[in-house]
Design a protein that fits this description.
Blueprint lengths: L2 H15 L1 E3 H8 L3 H13 L4 E3 L2 E3 L9 H6 L2 H14 L4 E5 L3 H9 L6 E5 L2 H7 L5 E5 L3 E3 L4 E3 L1 H7 L4 E6 L3 E2 L4 E4 L2 H12 L1 E7 L11 E5 L5 E4 L5 H10 L2 E6 L4 E4 L1
Keywords: DNA-binding, Repressor, Transcription, Transcription regulation
Pfam families: DeoRC, HTH_DeoR
Organism: Loktanella gaetbuli
Length: 262
Amino acid sequence: MSQSIRHPEILEIARRDGKVTVEHLADHLGVTLQTIRRDLSDLADAGKLERVHGGAVLPSGTINIAYEERRRLNAEGKTAMARACAAMIPEDCAIFLNIGTSTEAVANELLHHRNLLVVTNNMNVANILARNPDCEVVVTGGALRQSDGGLTGDITTAAIRKFKFDFGVIGCSAVDHDGDILDFDLREVGVSQTILGQSRRKILLADHTKFKRKAPAQIGSLSGIDVFVTDAPVPPDLAARCTDWGTQVQVCLPDALDTTSV
């Protein structure tokens, strides 16, 4: 079966099922696993699919990828970013970690920090840091989003306003070419804006996949962020804007778990 026939068939299955797996496609189309992996990479490069562990999903537009899929998506890159972020955070300080798989990765990297006060609206972050006896964890409260353990709403923002954080660490769903920071849920956007407003130093974590995605609601701009942590070089135009804004860009290389600053 030729590529010109396989690609439309793969996209049709993805639209029907929401995702595709390498093994299922190889069996269904009667080709090798390596052929399917190349097909998925080609479709991802064309913006028609997004690669995840073991397969691919439809690219995000106005609907976010399922949380478990996001956890597996670019796990190595998120680990590299999380290590770089945790290295910026000293002991004996107050931080906020918001909803997201990248902030969960940061929580894992903070398990050996001492004398931290961590406030979060992420039940997963709270459960991770409960294992650190030298960390005081405060959960904001709010309406529980069962899909990802996030807490949002007026109760959440009211709780956040009671604090002043040394570091506010947030993730997002997408970063636009002009530096706008985007998300899907308006309630979550309000929470993120409040976190940034209550933080002395503002850190955004967004891996390279966020540059390929779109989301409808604006949190703010990279111009209001102190450190932008990502796992691949930022597009040149945006890198130049960050320099003008005074936003430090920390590029983490997942293969070597190395970092560079620009």
